[in-house]
Amino acid sequence: MNYAIPLALxxxxxxxxxxxxxxxxxxxxxxxxVDLWLIFRLARRPIxxxxxxxxxxxxxxxxxxxxxxxxxxxxxVFALELLLVFASMTIVGSRRVTRRDWLAAAAMTxxxxxxLLAASPSGGRAHAPASLWWLxxxxxxxxxxxxxxxxxxxxxxxxxxxxxxxxVLGAVTGxxxxxxxxxxxxxxxxxxxxxGPIAGSWSLYVLIGAGAASLLLASHALAAGPLxxxxxxxxxxxxxxxxxxxxxxFGEHIQTAPLNLAAEAAALALLVGGATTLSHSRLLAxxxxxxxxxxxxxxxxxxxxxxxxxxxxxxxxxxxxxxxKITAACG
Length: 331
What we know:
Elements: H1 4-26, H2 38-42, H3 46-68, H4 71-78, H5 81-92, H6 99-119, H7 130-151, H8 159-188, H9 195-199, H10 202-224, H11 227-250, H12 258-278, H13 283-307, H14 312-318, H15 323-330
C-alpha cells in the first residue's frame, strides 16, 4: 500500500488549519518592514500557537509522505490546501465565499495537480551534489530578497497596498517552502539509519534554519493582509518550486510526449485563469473593510455625542467641516 497520498492529505489539512489560525492570530500585527520579533509577539496569542502546532504537524506528515513517495506525487496533494482554506473561510470569514471564488480556487487546484501529474517527474537520485545545492540555495535566497524589497517598498497605509503586500509575501513564502520541501526530501533519505547519520547530515541544520526563516516569512504574509491574498502564493508556488528543484537537484525527468505537453499547457491556462479571477474577488477586501467601517463609525459616534452636548454652539463650530458626514451618520 502507498502511504504517501493519505499522509499528504493529512498534511494538507494541517497546513490549511495552520493558515487560518495564524491569520486570525496575526490579523492586527501588520509589519511595514522585516521584523524579527514578530513571531515572539504572535507567540503570546493562543490561536496563533494552535496554528503553529498544526503547521509543525503538517511538516511531519510531509516528511513521512516524502519517505514513501516522490516529490512530484506528494506536492500536488498539498494543492488541496487552497480548497480547504476556502472551506474554512466559509465558516470563520466575514463574507460568503461565492461560486465564482470556489470555481477560481478549484481551477487553480486542478491546474496545479494536472500540471505536475502530466509532467510526471520520475527517476532521479536520492542525494544532490553540493554544488547544485549551493546554486539552488542562492537562487532561492535571491528570489526571497527581491520579493521582500518589492513587498515593503509598496505604499503604506493603503488597503490595496496591504493586499498586494500580502500577495507578494505569500509568493515569497511559497518559494521558501518549496526549497524547504526539497531539503526535506534530502533529509528524509537519512531516516531509519539511526541517530548518528541524521545528526551528521547537513540537511538537518539547513532544514532548521530554512524552516525558521519560512515561518518568519509566513507570519509577515499572514499579518500583511487578507488570507485570500496570501494563500494562493502559499499553495501554488510551494509545489511548483519544489517540482522544479526536484528536476534540478535530484535529476528527475518530466514527460514531453505531445499529449503530456498539451495537458501541461491546459493546466497552465487553468492556473492563470483561476489566479486572475481570484485577484478580483471580494474576499480580498473582506477583512480590510470591517475595521475601517468600525473605525469610522466610532469616530462619527463621538462626533454625534459632541454635537448634542451641553455646548452646541462650540460643537457646531468645531464640526462644521464634517457636517455633511455627521448629518448622514446622526440623522
